[in-house]
Amino acid sequence: MNAVKKVLGLLGSDISYTLSPLMHNxxxxxxxxxxxxxxxxxxxxxxPAALEGLRALGIVGxxxxxxxxxxxxxxxxxxxxxxxxxxxxxxxxxxxxTLIGYNTDIYGFAEPLKVFKSELEKExxxxxxxxxxxxxxxxxxxxxxKPATVFILARNExxxxxxxxxxxxxxxxxxxxxLNMADPKTLEILRDCxxxxxxxxxGSAQPSASKxxxxxxxxxxxxxQIAYELVYNPxxxxxxxxxxxxxxxxxSGLEMLIHQGAKAFEIWTGNTMPIExxxxxxxxxxxxN
Length: 289
Ligand code: NAP
Description:
It contains twelve helices and twelve strands. The protein is of the alpha/beta class.
């Protein structure tokens, strides 16, 4: 008889597109570990009950995704130093009934960017979006890449200003500037940025996400720039395509997905994820989508 599997999962809303179950179940099976990773698509009002449910059911841990990464914080018992600093959590470990929040998005964002580290110092960076993923990206940029300025391009100025002020309250070592995406200065600023990041769901397979491009590609991209897409499903997005056509360097959201997942897997199971195998399986799944 098979042993009862230890349960892992993903808490989010509107997340049918996720590849996390395939990633974690592939890794657990390859290592002969007895875990099963499931999707819990929950309504906002059920978030506190879902977290109580982790304790009651002895669920080992969960990832937390859109739109709960920030609001989950107040229901947890403890936070890692990084999660506490950004006040956003994407990984929860249930340690004998104590729920500990981590943020592995910061690590996951930084890993694929490290090959460009020397090119980013003292340069300008722009990031679309001001949600949980943008928070993790800005934290990683501040900790590891030392750009001169990060422009936060968003459609909701109150929200982007709140994010900027939150970072500045904690640490002023990185210059942050906010700009409404619709501002005519946006295109000019983007042309001067070494790295441009899409931290919005625009272009993703998420049913509610906009499919209209964030920027008119022909007006900004040059081959000197780096495009970092955080959307991973589909693999190819208008943001990446525009950059590729201009000869810019590109990083797919799949890389961040794998690295944030590998760190979470290690927190829950104590094991190293077989990254090459996981990348191969995920690429195949995305290509046959
Ligand atoms: P979030 O907290 O909900 O934030 C989303 C941000 O995108 C908000 O600033 C939102 O603006 C903005 N936005 C949404 N639709 C937009 C549109 N049509 N035009 C302009 N801005 C728009 O979500 P998140 O957790 O930051 O995730 C953002 C994206 O990154 C998602 O697609 C997610 O799947 C992806 N992600 C990928 C990874 C990975 O491992 N590859 C990790 C984390 C996140 P408003 O506040 O005005 O709505």
